[in-house]
Amino acid sequence: MIAEWLRRVLKRQPPKALTVLVWIAGMAFAIAWAAPLVWMVSTSLKLPSQVMTRTIEWLPRTVTFNNYVHVMQKPVLRWMLNSGIVTAASTAVSLITGAMAGYALARMNFPGRNVLFFLILAVLIIPTEMTIVPLFIGVLKIGLVNNYLSLMVPGLASAFSVYLFRNFFLTLPRELEDAAAIDGANRLRMFWSVALPVARPAFIAGAILLSTTYWNLFLWPLLVTFKESMKTLPVGMAGFTPGTGVGQSTQVEGYAGAMAAMTILTIPSIIVFIILQRQFIEGATSAGIKG
Amino acid sequence: MAALGSVPLAGRPFSLARLRRATWNGERIDWWAYVFVLPFLLPFLVTTFGAILFGIYVSFTDWGIIGAPHWIGLKNYERAVADPWVWKTWSNTLRYGLVVTPTITVVALLMALFVNQRWWGYTFARAAFYAPNVVSVTVIGLVWVWMLDTRFGLVNQYLGRFGVPDVPWLTSPSWALYGVAIASVWWDAGFSMVVLLAGLQDIPHELRESASIDGANQLQAIWHVVIPLLRPALSLVVTLLIISTLRVFSQIYLMTNGGPAGASASVIHYVYEVGFSRYQLGYAASLSVMLFLTILVLTVVQLRAFREKTW
After folding, report:
1. B171 shares a domain with B120
2. Are residues B152 and A51, on separate chains, in Cβ contact within 8 Å?
3. SS3 for B31?
4. Reported ipTM
5. Is the Cβ pair A54, B157 closer than 8 Å?
6. Domain of residue A37, residue span
7. How far off is chain A from B294, nearest CA to CA, in Å?
């Protein structure tokens, strides 16, 4: 195998000098782009006394996990659980309702279809900030603050999910369902046993995109959780901001502790991203097209 | 059945069979559709459509956190026009957008062109460029507070090696907005890169190759062939960036909380201040309606100008 590889490399034309230069510059840029995350992990493993120095040490002189121990004194696991529950539930609801409505929009004939599709397109453009004040009033008046249902509000009706599934079902050949219709299947059966099983790619793309969005939501959970135990991970971890004139509570451990908290917050996202890199990038493309 | 058919239309009794045969657009109506749409439609009408209408109503009231709302007409809007903070936060937001939008566009274009070459190691480069986009904004904010620390931050330490004096990125009124902008570029460039990458992959390879055979060098080929063909993707990226920069909030909240002295406060940050620190919900709603109208106008203008079929 190595011999094969060598032969291929040797047969290839040597790259031009300019190409090599551009490649080096590009790779250096990529490394620099990843550097803040590396620096974050490095800082989180340092003794607080070795953090505030004017010498740049990429590798900690002494590795310590004390910062993590300090961070875990906060209800981090509870926040993680909250985030997990809200993300999973919101994603599931969005995918199921989105697949059903998307299927209806793509395949069925009913009065109001065009109006509904227009509304969905309009909502894709409208910024969510527009709805934050009225939703906050609503949640407050019903007394839903500090509860999972209120955290799920942004995930209850995902126009994006409907749009994604509609586009997917439009690309499916109609013959699949026609065959089922001849067998006497009704709409529900056609949806359940013909359309859904082939919709896996749409479910995967939607699940990745929606769960990342819901996991990372910040403004809404910040507004509707006053109790420490009901915070989501991104909101809870924001409390580790070291004092730079920021309005949140400050932590004694300073940057070392803050970076330990940020590492904990980053790890789940990065692991999922590395495993599903291709799907992430394809999914983001379809999201970009949404306009 | 034949007898039923002779009965005049208006006098027909309601019958399930007739409903089943009803048509719309020349095709039979599929009543199942409403069952399929309902689980989405009900929450949608409440949490999105209803919320928008309710928000517009609230913007005409003096709603606070307690007590009943009173209709005060256009008072909130009059107050907004006279409010120096509104002008300040709008000017901050626009300046932020004017810095971030072109920077991200250029950086993302360079990234996309590089990754698209598929040279050795391109998957690593693509992952590195996109990774910041998948992590929480809390990480973006706090990591960059640390990176941009005036005395001990990595950025100033490296700049110091070139003799640049320490820059007070987040603590001086003249720099704070740009400090936040750096973090935003790092966060968002990867997403724009992916959109541009998809655009690049739509360009037939032969077009570029024929250009280089014609004697045009790589740079010229990129400038004269690739960029013009990339216009739809570029216009989409710019539009998305303009809209997202107008909505900037979380990074600012985390990094500077709008300070120092409001130097980095954005429109949404002011909405947050007014609505959720001072609980002047009516006024906050009017501020977000104004932002909403701006974004709506921009989107319509963009759609008109490019007439690209983006959906």
Report:
1. yes
2. yes
3. coil
4. 0.84
5. yes
6. 2-69
7. 11
